[in-house]
Specification:
Length: about 240
């Protein structure tokens, strides 16, 4: 009986050892690198990006020792340098630059480069319209006083039967030379240099002034004005003159 129970115990022990070895081969052993149990209430960890050799670690700024007051001292940053807003338009710190800044503060939409671009287009339209006697094209671009002067010259040509033949070649230079802000009215003066051919013919088609072939250079000084509080964004020509 004693030998029988001993044999049974040995058999059970052998079975237990076999089961343990089987479980160990399936589940593996703990190595200390196993993932912790999942916690549904913890914040998810961000997935680490694989190091493919392209990641460069930036050096950390060294912290300076605290001074006697206990406030951490950091190296001072370079002062922020404000670039000249009117670079290429007006000298930095000049009265012209200051006035342009005042105009920009009064009208947030104002941009000097955009204004110059529009003024160049207006200049060509006005010069061409005046040569053709096109009142309809001129009127929205001119101040009332300037329009009356232009219209008077056109009417005089028509009364004499004269006709202007012009070929506008282009603008070689356009630069802001002066600006003023009086109340809500802004004025900007531009020096234009253009090239064109032009002549005036009488009613018989004979050239009485100018040259239809020779290219000549024209230097004009024009002043544009706009009410900055008005809904109309257009600037109008209020004065014309010749450059010295």
């Amino acid at each position: 009986m004693g030998e029988s129970s001993t044999l049974i115990n040995l058999i059970l022990l052998a079975i237990a050892v076999g089961v343990f070895l089987k479980l160990r081969s399936v589940l593996g052993r703990r190595t200390g690198h196993e993932r912790p149990p999942f916690d549904p209430y913890s914040a998810p960890e961000k997935a680490a990006k694989p190091d493919d050799g392209k990641v460069v670690t930036l050096p950390q700024r060294e912290r300076a020792e605290a001074d006697e007051s206990g406030i951490d001292a950091y190296p001072q940053r370079e002062p922020y340098v404000v670039k000249n807003r009117w670079a290429g338009i007006a000298p930095e710190g000049s009265p012209l630059a200051q006035t342009l800044t005042e105009i920009a503060l009064a009208d947030r939409r104002f941009d000097a480069e955009a204004f110059l671009s529009g003024a160049r287009i207006a200049y060509e339209m006005i010069v061409t319209g005046f040569a053709k006697g096109d009142r309809k094209a001129l009127q929205p671009l001119l101040d009332e006083h300037v329009f009356k002067n232009f219209e008077g010259v056109i009417a005089g040509r028509e009364a004499r039967g004269e006709q202007v033949e012009q070929n506008f070649i282009g603008i070689t230079k356009a630069a802001i030379s002066d600006a003023a802000l009086e109340g809500k009215r802004a004025r900007i003066t531009i020096n234009f240099t253009s090239e064109l051919t032009a002549c005036t013919k009488n009613k018989d088609g004979i050239v009485i002034d100018g040259d239809p072939v020779t290219i000549r250079q024209v230097n004009d000084v024009w002043t544009f004005e706009r009410d900055l509080k008005a809904s109309d964004p257009n600037w109008r020509l209020v004065a014309t003159g010749a450059a010295d």
